[in-house]
Design brief:
single chain; about 375 residues; alpha+beta; Butyryl-Coa Dehydrogenase, subunit A, domain 1; Butyryl-CoA Dehydrogenase, subunit A, domain 2; Butyryl-CoA Dehydrogenase, subunit A, domain 3; 3 domains; 4-stranded mixed sheet; 4-stranded antiparallel sheet
Length: about 375
Amino acid sequence: MYELTEEQKMLQQTVRQIAKEKVEPRAAEIDAKGEYPWDMFELLRDNDLFALCFPEELGGSGADLLTVCLAIEELAKVCTNTALILGVCDLGSTPILLSGNDDQLKKYIPPLAAGEKQAAFGLTEPGAGSDAAAMSSKAVKKGDKYIINGQKCFITNGGIADIYSIFAKTDDTAGVKGISCFVIEKDFPGFSIGKIEHKMGICGSQTSELIFEDMEVPAENLLGKEGDGFKTAMMTLDRTRPTIGAQAVGIAQGALDHAVAYAKERVQFGGPIARLQGIQFMLADMAMQVEAARQLVYYSCVVVEKGGRDGSGISAMAKCFASDTAMKVTVDALQVMAGYGYMKEYPLERMMRDAKITQIYEGTNQIQRVVIARHLLG
């Protein structure tokens, strides 16, 4: 189990204040313009929030996973796009932290911890989403380089990031055991950015294709050994899925807060609608769902940090349950606000759109249920 330390509570309060004062006033504009919010990136950097994701010896603050999730949750209460800036820093860098050697760690992690550079994670391809083994990107070793050809799609931070953790096949005949992972820099020859996607939600987060055309990658940029890539990817997702859960909890809590405030103010039938039992029951159900999701996410952080076989199943549960909760709570909160909730001048319709992606990225919730079932059945 967990109990928040005084340091964690202080961090939570600090990020909550930053979110309310600096982030929330920008949230609607970020969504409406659909442009990457560099000012929000700078805000996180100037408050040393990227350092949370990294150990002290590499320039970070040495925070644990729960602390990272606390920060993401507070940001997501007001702006999913800003929360995702911190989340993708964690996702893109985790393969390096897990499988990188000393030279790779010293080269790539300190600039990420300082907010001088950004990272991204490249696993998904047009023909390989949930089925990572179906990827077609190939890496062939030639002398002291690997030559990579292929493409990735739906990559968060694509075209924004400086450093990419990229997966490609080094052995076509070995299935998932033929997948390897590489650290890619944005200026490597043969690397380019393809289509920039226009999305239903998280409109301020850039999502793009990555194109590899005889891309030259130094052999020393292989993470671990050839064939370690799939293991690295799965270990990464086990560790980062709680951050998606935290993002979902933040969205759901933000939606609930708006619904409660509105119910106290909206007058119908001679009084605030908060006096109506039908509304009270809706709010009570939302509150239970949000708190249950929060407890599961926090608990998953502790289990994942401890290591062991339980982490994968609990991590999948946290991501799946929290994101399903975010979708349900945002829909119900919008219903409480009725016609006003449907209007863009209020944040509920944006929160509902943003909540949907949490059921999809870092493994759809159908895949999470497969992971959970496999954990149960051995």
